[in-house]
Fold this protein.
Amino acid sequence: MTLIKSISGIRGTIGGEPGGALTPIDVVKFTAAYAATLPQRKPQPNGEKYKVVVGKDARLSGDMVEQLVVGTLVGCGIDVVKCGFASTPTTEMAVLFAQADGGIILTASHNPRQWNALKLLNDKGEFLTAIEGQAVLDLAEKEDFNFAEVDDLGTIEEEDFTDKHLDAVLALPAVDVEAIKAAKFTVVVDAVNSVGGIIMPRLLKRLGVKCIELNCNPTGNFAHNPEPLPANLVDLCDTVKKEKADLGVSVDPDVDRLAFIMENGEAFVEEYTLVSVADYLCELAEKEGKPIATVSNLSSTRALRDVTEKHGGKYYAAAVGEVNVTTKMHEVGALIGGEGNGGVIYPAIHAGRDAMVGVALFLSNLAHKKMKVSELKKTYPQYFIAKNKIQLSDAALIEKILNELKVIYAKENINDIDGVKINFEANKTWVHLRKSNTEPIIRIYSEAGTMAEAEALGNEVIAVANKIING
C-alpha cells in the first residue's frame, strides 16, 4: 500500500512492503516539515517558541509514533503539550484550551489497526487549508528544514483535556442536560477498544444516562473492523436488543464519526446522524427567529437540504473533505454542517467533527420529542444511497468523461466544484461522480427514494460513461 500524502497529513501502514509503509523516517520528515511551516501560518513575536499539542488514539503503534513526533518537535525548538489518549475533537479543542499554535493528531481514523497517520491542525484547531497542507508536503519532499541548537530545544508537558472538552459540550445551550436526565435513557456504546471507551461513557454518565459498555477498553486491539457500518456492528445491534436499550452508539477509533443503532437493533443509518441533529438545531433556530444555514459535502444525502428548507433555511454543498466543509461553513455562517459518514460539525463549540457533540444533541432532541429512535427516524425524508465505481487509470479519460457528462445532462442542475454532481430536481434524485484521490477510479454515488431506484440511476449514468469510454 502506497504512503498516502494529502493536504491534511500522511497515512500508511506500520510495516509492509518497502515504500508502502509509514516509516519512522516518514514520521520525522513530515513532522519537521510541519514545524518549519509554523512561521508562515502564524509569525511569532519576539522570537518566542511555538507550542504544539499532540494527541493520539489507542492504536498499537501510537506510543512509537508519539515518541517520534514529540521528539522531532522538541528538536525543532517547539514546546509540546502531550494530550495522551485523546479523541480527534478533544485534540482540536486542546489547541484552543492550551492557546497553542497548532496540533498533530496521531490517528488513522476508521482504518484498521495496522494503519496510523499524522493529521495536522492550525492554531484554531482546524485542519490545514489546501495551500498550507501543500507547503508541508513540499518541504517534506525537499527535506528543507532545520533543527534547533541545544539551548533552544523545546519542552514537554502533559495534560488531559477530556473533562474540559466535556465541560464545553455540556455548556452548550442546545444540550438540554436536565431533559436527558429526566428521560432516563439506556445507551450501549461500542468504542472499538480505542479512546471512545474513555470519553463517551464519561459523557453519558454526566448526562445521567445508563451506559452499557461494549469494547470500551482502549487496548488498540480493535474488536472488529473499526468503520462504524452496520456490517461491522452486529454485536452492538444484538446488545441493544438484549438489554432493551433506547439507543446504540458506535464511534470510530478517534471518535469523530458517529453511527446510531435504533432500539429495534437496526441501523439509524450514518447519513441520518447529521440530518437528525441538524433538524433539531434548525427547529430551535426557527423558533428563535435566527438565520439558518447548513452545509454538507456533495456525496451526502439530500435529506439535510430538505429539513433545512422545511425550517426556512438555506442549504449549501461543499466539495468532499472535512476542510472543504468547514471552509464553506465559515463562508456562509452555518449553524451546523458535516458529512454523511456520521461527522457532525457544530461551530458553536468548534469547527471539527465531534461525536460527543453529536450524541449530546441527539439525546436532547430525543428527550424533547419523547419518542423511540425508530419513530424519530420515520419523521425524516427517506432516501437511499448506492455506491459504485468505474476502474480507470487514464487521468485524461476521466476528465473527458466528467466534461462530457456535463454536456449530456446540461438541462439538469449541475454542480462541478468536485467532479460532477447531476441533480434531477423533478424527482429529488442525484448522481455524483468524482475522481478518487487514492485510487485510479471514478467514485459514483447515487441517491433516490428506494435503494432499487438509486442503483438503477447509478447504472444509467455508468452506461452513459461507458459509451464515452468506448468512443
About this structure: The radius of gyration is 22 Å. The CA atoms of residues 435 and 442 lie 5 Å apart. The chain has four domains: 4-160, 165-261, 271-377, 384-469. The mean pLDDT is 94.
